[in-house]
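hiii so um. not sure if this is the right channel but i have a protein structure encoded as tokens and i wanna go backwards to a sequence. like what aa goes where. can anyone help
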């Protein structure tokens, strides 16, 4: 694998990781035990304090992400980044092998 490809996958993974809090919203079906909403995917790495209503009639509640009140956690961010990087790396290898061998794996004959 070329260094350029790894660098490209590194950048794409970082962009996807940083955009996930804005793409996905947190939804609550009932009042939560904790008073924080977590954002990010696949492992939440931003959390934000939120005043949840106690009235059961206001649920399900969708909480949008606001960067101004969010607190960043570095270790979950690294795990999310690593998850996306490994996912895109696997996709890259699958697609590269598919086109390299013309859609099938050539078997050597022992004849």
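sure thing!! here u go:
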């Amino acid at each position: 694998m070329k260094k350029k490809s790894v660098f490209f996958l590194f950048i794409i993974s970082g962009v996807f990781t940083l955009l996930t809090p804005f793409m996905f919203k947190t939804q609550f079906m009932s009042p939560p035990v904790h008073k924080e909403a977590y954002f990010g995917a696949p492992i939440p790495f931003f959390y934000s304090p939120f005043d949840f209503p106690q009235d059961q009639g206001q649920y399900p509640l969708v909480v949008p992400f606001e960067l101004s009140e969010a607190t960043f956690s570095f270790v979950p961010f690294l795990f999310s980044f690593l998850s996306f990087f490994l996912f895109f790396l696997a996709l890259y290898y699958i697609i590269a092998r598919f086109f390299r061998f013309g859609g099938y794996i050539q078997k050597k004959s022992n004849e």
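oh and Residues 74-100 form the longest helix (27 residues).
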